[in-house]
Amino acid sequence: MNTMPEKHYLNEKRGWKSWLFTLDHKRIGILYLYGIMAAFLVGGVFAMLVRLELLHPGRDLMDAKTYNQFFTLHGAVMIFLFIIPSIPAALGNFVLPQMLGAKDVAFPKLNLASWYIYVVGALVAIYSIYAGGVDTGWTFYTPYSTTTSTSVVAMTLGAFILGFSSIFTGLNFIVTIHKMRAPGMTWFKMPLFIWGLYATAIIQVMATPVLGITLLLLIMERVLAVGIFDPAMGGDPVLFQHFFWFYSHPAVYIMILPGMGIISELIATFSQKKIFGYKAIAFSSLAIAFISFLVWGHHMFVSGQSQLASMIFSFLTFLVGIPSGIKVFNWVATMYKGIIRFDTPMLYALAFLFLFTIGGLTGIFLGTLATDVHLHDTYFVVAHFHYVMMGGTVMAFLGGIHFWWPKMWGRMFNKKWALLSWLLIFIGFNMTFFTQFILGTKGMPRRYYNYLDQYQPLHAFSSYGSWVLGLGFLIMAVYLFYSIKRGPVAGNNPWGSLTFEWKSSSPPPVANFETEPILKHGPYDYDKIIPERTYS
Amino acid sequence: MSTPAKHSAYLAHHFSDSIQQSDSAKLGMWIFLLTEILLFGGLFVAYAIYRAWNPDMFYNAHKYLDVTLGALNTVVLITSSLTMALSIRCMQLGNRKRTMHLLLVTLILAGVFLIVKYFEYSHKIHLGQLPGKYYTFTGIEGNNPHIFFSIYFMMTGLHGIHVLAGMGVIGWILKRTSRGDFSPEYYTPIELTGLYWHLVDMIWIFLFPLLYLIG
Amino acid sequence: MNSEAKSHYHILPLRTYITVAGALMVLTVVTVAVSFVNLGGWNAVTAVFIAAVKASLVALFFMHLKYDKKINAVVFLMAILFLAIFLSFTFFDILSRGDIYSEVEKSIKGKAVIYDTMPFDSKSAGHDDSLTVENNEP
Questions:
Q1: How far is residue C88's CA from residue C82's CA, in Å, rounded to a whole number?
Q2: Which residue of B has its CA nearest to C40?
Q3: How confident is the model at residue C84 (pLDDT cuts 50, 70, 90)?
């Protein structure tokens, strides 16, 4: 039988002070995990309320003004407080140094500071709800955002502060990956999750400062009326969109790239096969990071930017499909003739493959100039980015959570409940969002409070789906929290994985490894070594 | 891998040696500088766009900036950059006293820069050459001259905040030097402060011709 | 590796610092002088070029990029590269805002009413009322 290690990072020190002042990257990862889970709950409740309101045309439970605030808050909370920090700051923090064989990230104090900045940013953002809410949508487009009477300044200030948190995490990761690898860990022996985090970190440090200056300019515009974005004063509101999307388009790759990294780990581990096309997957992460900076204008095809710019941005947008396709094909090729085991993390990886492919392909439709004019600002866009963000990132995140859960706590969750919850989430997700593709092509605009009767059945179906989805998450929350204290002991390497973090005990000791780790084999050498599984 | 005995007081537990530590710190600082460049970058892009759209207005408006004071501030910042670089050199050579003197000179020059800036600002505020809707000056021909002053105040203002922050950091480093925290073996914080200060100088090197010297 | 030797490897001679500072001062004078000569569009180009030379001097010598690990220089150049992308791609829009290609123009102009001045009275702005009626079809 497996036994828990006597001393590990969870029980070495006790009390709330040992958590709030910890410099241990694993504990900071857990702190982040609590933060983003709370944000996910809040954002999820907003989503459910929005869907509930849309059950019938006209008023169901809130007026149009409240509805506008709710979808804005759903977007802002989910993006700035949940998805952006989810994988890098929570799972990445926990796993990255362990995967590299390092004792900690390069700057542990900065790491803790970034969590506090996250909390402060979150509080400022929440204050904006108290101070009148925000109804601009999470994109804060001018000139509406400079004229609405809601508390845009507080929300943008919150996002500005959260940006620092994101920058510090990215900075920390880049330096850690460059300087803290264990002996023998060359660039091409790093697990692919690290490559994903590396590409993510590059975008975080390059793009986030531009968001910073954009939001500062917006605040200036509101407070001092500087006129940069105000057409009445010789300014240009479209310029705001350039500034905003220079950050926010790369930011959607901040959201998806680490997810892709997790999928590489899961597929290799649960196929017990050497990953197909390691270098191709690694470099495609960097390629996506680079191309992400060249395509922001595809959000602006109908906002009055020049035709020349639209054509260039549309063309470049197609390029994103190439590295994304490379990844998907390589994952599928990895599974081919592998010994596939359908453990919970793998189920999420497969869901990711299916949903992300749909999300990615519909992105190509939207990147095409002519079709975008028809589909722009309809539910088709909403469905597209939920397939990528939720079907992609959230599925990868859930896969990662289940994968590293026994590493974090040393205990295993109940797999039967996990299967049920996965099934509900998968079905509920497709009910909710596939319907929205249809709604969009039929011409239902996004963000509308009221709609024509002809859309009612589809809207209702989508709302029912959101309940199935919510039930799936509820079950997951229960069995995961239950397992922290009462789950069966998982052992050091429950999944039989070859990456570094499974070499130490579960939960790992404070210094991550009992002895100085030295790399003896690649992360995916399943053709040479068959690792022992400590739990089945 | 080093044994605990080789760990000096300034070496953090998770690094194996001081080279790894100082290299990491420097790389981290450079990445931070990169974020600073891109933060200012947004304003530079805004500047370029509005100048491309209103070349004549920019030309007319820039005449109201004082080239002499701008050039003086350029000289002041370049000199402060020199003294900053030399203070690091002195620490490398182990001359703590002179390091402190040079850091003090740097700090004073930064103060001079801000004082000059204060006189420039108060003159403009007096004339009503203010950003956006607060602009009341009438002597400039061209479309929307307030845009020029919006950009002028935001660029120099953000830069000024960075000078102020730099002064804080230099003062802190000065205190630590006088406390004897640094030696030729360990002076990374001074080096990082220097990098930051040179970047502040570098940004001014661009701001000066772009705002004061529109030909 | 001897860490002491390594951490000392870029103590520059005093002369280098003084020379660089001198060059920066001279270039400052040059850029002010040039700005009073009318070169047309080249004024802006020269000003930015001189500033770039000055910035490079600061980066290479004061910030030790010339002697440091190459990765630091790469980080710095990445900042410049992405700023350039930001600027140039925004200008794809800024410089051709409102341009309409002739093929597109033909089909638009064929049906459109072209005003010499903008009509601000919405009644006369030519809204086609029939469009709103047709939408009632299920």
A1: 10
A2: B215
A3: very high
Of B212, B215, B203, B202, nearest to B44 (Cα)?
Answer: B203
Q: What is the rounded average pLDDT of the residues B132-149? A: 87
- Average pLDDT on B67-89 reads 96
B partners (3+ CB pairs within 8 A) are A, C
b/e map of B6-17 (b: 16 or more CB within 10 Å)? eeeebbbebbbb
- Taking each helix axis from N to C end, the angle separating A395-409 and A456-486, rounded to the nearest 10 degrees, works out to 10
Low-confidence residues of chain A, pLDDT below 70?
Answer: 1
Which of these, A250, A237, A225, A98, lies nearest to A167 by C-alpha position? A250
Q: Which two tokens stand for residue C63?
A: 């910030």
Helix (H) / strand (E) element for A421: namely helix A415-441
- Please tell me the total number of residues recorded for chain B in this structure: 215
Residue A268 backbone dihedrals phi, psi, to 5 degrees: -65, -45
Q: Which residue in this structure is represented by tokens 């906002």? A: A303
What residue ranges do the domains of chain B occupy? 35-212
Mean pLDDT in residue range B37-41: 96
- Residue that the structure tokens 């030519």 belong to: C126
CA distance A448 to A510: 51
Nearest chain C residue to A295 by CA: give it.
Answer: C89
Two structure tokens written together for C43:
């004024």
Provide the CATH number for the domain formed by B35-212 in this structure.
1.20.120.80
Shortest CA distance to B132 belongs to which of A96, A453, A222, A353?
A: A222
Tokens at A308, concatenated: 């020349």
Q: Which residues pair with A489 in a beta bridge?
A: A411
Closest residue by Cα to residue A263 from A249, A251, A280, A275: A275
User: Contact C4/B185, CB-based, under 8 Å?
Assistant: yes
* b/e map C24-58, b = 16+ CB within 10 Å: bbebbeebbebbeeeeeeebbebbeebbebbbebb
Alpha-carbon distances, residue C23 vs A35, A389, B87, C58, C61 (angstroms): 52, 53, 20, 10, 12
3-state secondary structure of A378: strand
| pLDDT score recorded for residue B4 | 42
What CATH fold (topology level) applies to the domain A20-503?
Cytochrome C Oxidase; Chain A (1.20.210)
- What are the residues of chain A with a beta carbon less than 8 Å away from any beta carbon of chain C? 178, 206, 210, 238-239, 242, 246, 293-294, 296-297, 300, 304-309, 312-313, 454
| Calpha distance A402→A146 (Å, rounded) | 43
Query: Does residue B13 register a pLDDT over 60?
Result: yes
